[in-house]
Design brief:
The structure is a single chain. This protein has 67 residues and is mainly alpha-helical. It contains three helices and no strands. Helix 1 packs across helix 3.
């Protein structure tokens, strides 16, 4: 979906740069339930991937290396 790609890219760039007002800039999107669901799903995936792999998105061939 175009929205998911756009907002995903925007959020990732904001997180990488450490933008403190990132939520303020997307807060208006929370008025649309469909968009809230997409954002929630993206953020949960990012959190899980960052914890497991240290990256926002995981390619199909990526595996976790235990240290």
């Amino acid at each position: 979906e175009p929205f998911a790609k756009s907002i995903g890219s925007y959020l990732q760039k904001g997180f990488q740069k450490g933008v403190p007002s990132l939520f303020q800039s997307v807060k208006y999107l929370y008025a649309t339930p469909d968009k809230v669901q997409i954002i929630d799903s993206l953020l949960n995936n990012y959190l899980n991937n960052l914890n497991k792999y240290g990256t926002f998105e995981v390619s199909s061939g990526m595996i976790k290396i235990e240290r």
